[in-house]
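User: Mind token order:
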Amino acid sequence: MRWLAAGLRAWPLALLLTLAAPAGAHAQAAPALPAITLGDGPPRLDGEELGSLWLDATGSAGIDQVAGGDLHLKPGSTSAIHDFGDRGALWIHYRLALAPYTRQGWLITLPSPVLDFVRLWQRDADGQWRSQTAGDTVAVDAWPEPGRYPSFRLDLEPGQSHDVYLQVRSQTPTSVPVRLESEAAHAQQLQVEYLGLGVAFGALVLLIASCAAQSWAYRDRIYGWYAAYAAATMLGLMAYTGVAAHLLWTGSGFWADALQGSLALLATGAAVLFVRSLAGIAVRHRVLARVTAVAGPLGGVLALAYPFLARPLALGLVAAYMACAVALNVLVAWLSWRRRDSVGLWVLLAYAPLATAVLLSLARVFGWLPASFGTLYAIVVATALEVPLLLVALSIRARERHGTQIRELALSSQDALTGLLAPHLFHDRLRQVVARYRRDREDAAVVFIDLVNHGRIKAHYGSAVAEQSLLRSVIKLRRLLRDVDTVSRVAEARFGLILEGVTARTEVTQSAARLIAAGLMPLKGLKPDVTLQFHIAAVVLRERTMDAPALADSLGVLLDGMSARTRRPIRFLEPEVTQPAPLDDDPAHEGDEDSLLPEASAGLASS
């Protein structure tokens, strides 16, 4: 009976415990979150594991509901990939305490330039909730701390615990990196980041300027296309890293969010067209050339449509287009390299790391990989490697093309076999020399040389030996000529020379005799043993002046009139015959000029 009496005495206590049970259960369901002390110790803390989380699938919860007792928030990691859905929001709760006598303030930072919307909630001095917003869809001018990614300054009283809430939205599944850092650490981190980005963008600007200058100086459009491609790539990287929203279009959240995808599509389309032009696949791979010709402009069309499409559909188009474009560029480079084109190797080396970086970025965008330095900035590093490698490939291709153009010009200005001046340019030069002699009396001699036995050599030994004899003739000619003299192959086995400053036949005769002697000397070791026989016709302009075509025709007639076995292989055009001028100073005939003409004629006839 004593146990019954004890039970009756204990029932008020049991009733009290029963009534208090919900409160106890409530306390166990939401244990107090330990406070994180911020002070003069470590200047930076990784906040990904220090808070409690709750994913609001509908996005309708407010701060009062979330902060009313932490009913839904549980310890978790923000580094995990969270699927926000169309309207979802991730709530992150931190309990922070500022150590007494701390010398500097603290900030909470989310170092991801691609987060759409971030809101920080903290209480003011009156205990009311106050919020600050940042993110891609908010104009940077309205951010509390303008920058590439969201940062918020914490308002903490020393020695007290404060609850801080982050509300994060994103159109794609992603992780949410969070850092707690002091003001000094935050400023230093920003400087280091902008130093690296400044080096990359500065190199791109230098390349763009140099390529634009080369395109203008050399009238080479391919350098202009490269400058346009590099500019589109640089703008795409600036938008992707948040630099453009921070420094260029700071007043529009819409464009800050939309231009990331638009510029990425534009840069990718420019890359397809540039690689297509650089690799030169239009002749060898016609189907692939048509595909790339369509894929490049398609990037521009998608870039214009991207801002006005639903974000999930737009992101899907960006991913599909970039993956296909990278695959096309790698395929084009590989096919070019396979046919032993060195340009293809350089393009392949440039796009292999870029393709990897693009795949990592796409995997991060679709929530397959968490946001980290590697997934966020791999594309920046890959682009920093890709641009100079593509410039090397461009330089090789430009050098090859310029070499081809130089050879084409040489074919129009030089003889294909001997490399001497083309006949039409020689005759132009001859007209200039004759005109200059008539105007300024600048002396010169014109010489035509025939390789007399060229026809016999060709008939007995073939065309190869005949061409070899012409080349040997050119070598012997160049040994006798000065740099200022002009030499050309004016016919199959005939050479034309213009000797500047020659005033007498003796200078021409000496050079011609040495040439004839050199041709008759056999070349040691030559098989067959062929000698060269030359006939030479010349004129000194001081002795005879006529129009350039008539002069060339006269020399040709003089050469054609020589027999093959002539003993006078060197001949000159005869000087012009002139009549003596009347003696005006003879007083006996002064004033009677007509009477001199019959006498002068009779004197010439008798002579």
Q: What stands out?
A: Residues 72 and 395 are 61 Å apart (CA to CA). Confidence is low (pLDDT under 50) at residues 1-31, 586-607.
